[in-house]
Specification:
Strand content: 15-25%
Protein name: Threonylcarbamoyl-AMP synthase
Domain YrdC-like: 14-200
Structural class: alpha/beta
CATH class: Alpha Beta
Helix content: 25-40%
CATH architecture: Alpha-Beta Complex
GO molecular function: double-stranded RNA binding
Radius of gyration: 16 Å
Number of helices: 6
CATH superfamily: DHBP synthase
InterPro entries: DHBP_synth_RibB-like_a/b_dom, Sua5-like_dom, SUA5_domain
Largest sheet: 10 strands, mixed
Organism: Nitrincola tibetensis
Length: 206
Amino acid sequence: MSQLFQIHPENPQKRLVTQAVEILKKGGVVVYPTDCAYALGCCLGDKQAMERIKQIRQLDDKHNFTLVCSDLSVISTYAKVDNSVYRLLKAHTPGAYTFILNATSEVPRRLLHPKRRTIGIRVPANNIVTELLRELGEPIMSTSLMLPGDEMPLTDPYDIRESLQHHVDLVIDGGFCGMEATTVVNLVNDVPEVVRVGAGDVSFFN
């Protein structure tokens, strides 16, 4: 059965953050809040945990996972970023966006789109995630918590735990954090392309 941690959204308790990171490092699948909605996450190199997430969401091999990063300095390790893309990322992170970029060789092949070798990158504006990433020291491999058949992400931590208590190791209750997915922007080509309209303002990219 999954654990439930109530972590303060403004002042995350260090003890609980450390325990959550330990669960991740031991191969755990964690539900955590972001600045848009709750998400499913695991450690970047953990193939078994990734397979568990794919089973929960019934995802196929074409699904683009997202690397949730603490800041821009981490992004360049995992994605190819030129000066113009860097300026755009700097202007919109942290925030409610997922950016699709060409991946570097640091990204495990199984996380990439099989044909395009791209990866989603995200820097959320959420104190709990920021502290988790700082303690973990690497990105969290992530996907939004949208269960099969649902049109919107789950929003209530207690409902989430009831639905997934035998499928995840930890649910972090960080309060209501929204119910809209991120805006997805493809930056692989010269002109930014809005792939999905979500919580992030798209007027910058029109």
